[in-house]
Write a structure and sequence with these properties.
460 residues, alpha/beta, Leucine Aminopeptidase, subunit E, domain 1, Aminopeptidase, 6-stranded mixed beta sheet, 16 helices, 20 strands, binds ligand BES, binds manganese (II) ion, binds zinc ion
Length: 460
């Protein structure tokens, strides 16, 4: 996607961003004709109001946006939705919002999914503010938009193979090592659970593996759930529940976005990205309820529900990640409906086996306006996962605490000595809000990248 920025444009329309509290004074300073216009357009200084103001000839002389009372980067994300197509330039600086955040929000608000239909509305372009780290804006915005495109692409055009191709492109761009284990090779290389979940599809399951960075640097491993379509398997989802399951690879897209930011910023880490990519399908060779599968780790898993497939494919990837004893493992997955019941659609749930790391990530999310909320790895609920004849059941015996039991299932495959974060995300904007058009979303990607760059940015 081409980002909506231009170098300079003499004819660009100036955009004033005004605080609600400053509105009366600002309004008084405007020429009489402009005041008449603003009043006629119904502007009164309330947050979110936006209008073009004409000059004496009826040509646009300027635009004004009333920002939120508490300044936020997302004020700038609203501009592409509120302004008519054309070229604009901000008046003054963006403080207290950083220019990078403001322009990232602007770029994110400009995202449209154009694979199957042109953007019918023209483009709202912004002149680059002076003194801004353009490369940073570009890498973050491009990574986020790639993730959104992948999540929004329907499953007929994005299966496990296409997801691997997209991952390979990200790896190539940054000269990372890329490998992928496909189909029956998963059995030979001891990824039995990924294979079991994905084998019913005509599109072979696979494990995508990207490695990048200085070998001696701290090891950070990202794992993303790559279910390209979740029909539920033999425990088939009802139509309403299946409808948007093209987005069930949202975790994979999110960690690809983070990886792309990390590599572009050349953080001093030895990064690894693991993406188990499958389609959860129905066929004669599908895995079944009450099947028991020995996982990569050796743990025997009884299938209580074939629709709890995410935690299954993640468990083999987590076991592989833990083998290297990384300094940090972060997994992102559209794992449970229960997480959405708990926190609603916009706020990803975070679980962590290390309080300090949890605080670090929550803080990064607050700083970057990409928030998460923590839920506990509540050990007493481990009993809901007990199986009578295997080590563990993949589905809780009660729907209560469903996000927690899913996280506890994952924890089974992570040693306590490895700091581990699990993020249960929606990966989808259900409605358009400033900077967040309806469609796929890499929720928590900037929060994770923020944590990693706070820790591992190269000193300059
Ligand atoms: N991909 C779904 C979870 C999901 C559903 C995320 C809707 C976002 C919106 C996952 O594979 C799933 O089906 N989970 C089941 C687990 C249950 C069978 C234990 C769920 O949440 O109902
Ligand atoms: Mn499922
Ligand atoms: Zn799923």
């Amino acid at each position: 996607m081409t980002l909506p920025f231009i170098d300079r444009a003499p004819a660009a329309i100036p955009v004033a961003v005004v605080a609600p509290a400053d509105w009366p004074a600002w309004f008084k300073r405007q020429p009489a004709k402009a005041r008449t216009w603003l009043q006629a357009a119904g502007l009164s200084g309330k947050a979110g109001e936006c209008a073009l103001v004409p000059d004496g000839d009826g040509k646009p002389a300027m635009a004004v946006l009333v920002r939120s009372i508490k300044p936020t980067m997302w004020d700038y994300g609203a501009l592409p939705q509120k302004l008519p197509p054309g070229d604009y330039a901000l008046v003054g600086d963006t403080a207290p919002v950083s220019p990078v955040d403001a322009m990232v929000a602007f770029a994110l608000g400009s995202w449209r999914f154009t694979r199957y239909r042109d953007n019918k509305r023209g483009v709202v372009r912004m002149v680059w503010p002076g003194k801004i780290d353009r490369a940073c804006v570009e890498s973050v915005a491009t990574a986020m938009c790639l993730a959104r495109d992948l999540i929004t692409t329907p499953a007929n055009d994005l299966g496990p193979a296409e997801l691997a191709t997209a991952a390979r492109a990200v790896a190539r761009k940054h000269r990372a090592r890329f490998s992928v284990i496909v189909g029956n090779d998963l059995l030979r290389r001891n990824y039995p659970v990924i294979h079991a979940v994905g084998r019913a599809s005509t599109r072979a399951p696979r494990l995508i593996d990207i490695v990048w960075g200085r070998p001696g640097a701290p090891k950070v491993t990202l794992i993303g759930k790559g279910v390209c379509f979740d029909s539920g398997g033999l425990d088939l989802k009802p139509a309403a529940g299946m409808l948007n399951m093209k987005k069930d690879m949202g975790g994979a897209a999110t960690v690809l976005a983070v990886a792309s930011m990390v590599m572009a910023a050349k953080l001093d880490v030895r990064l690894r990205v693991l993406i188990p990519a499958v389609e959860n399908s129905v066929s004669g060779n599908a895995f079944r309820p009450l099947d028991i599968i020995a996982s990569r780790k050796g743990t025997t898993v009884e299938i209580g529900n074939t629709d709890a497939e995410g935690r299954l494919i993640m468990c083999d990837a987590l076991a592989e990640a833990a083998r290297e004893e990384p300094a940090l493992v972060i997994d992102v997955a559209t794992l449970t409906g229960a997480a959405r019941v708990a926190l609603g659609p916009d706020l990803p749930v975070m679980f962590c086996n290390d309080d300090a790391v949890a605080e670090e990530l929550l803080g990064s999310g607050r700083n970057r306006e990409d928030q998460l909320w923590r839920l506990p790895l509540w050990r007493p609920y481990r009993r809901f996962l007990e199986s009578k004849i295997a080590d563990i059941n993949n589905a809780g015996s009660t729907p209560f605490g469903g996000a927690i039991t899913a996280a506890l299932f994952l924890q089974e495959f992570v040693p306590d000595s490895v700091p581990w974060v699990h993020i249960d995300t929606m990966a989808w904007n259900q409605t358009t809000t400033p900077g967040k058009p309806e469609g796929g979303e890499a929720m928590a990607a900037r929060a994770i990248f923020g944590l990693l760059s706070d820790r591992y940015a190269r000193k300059r």
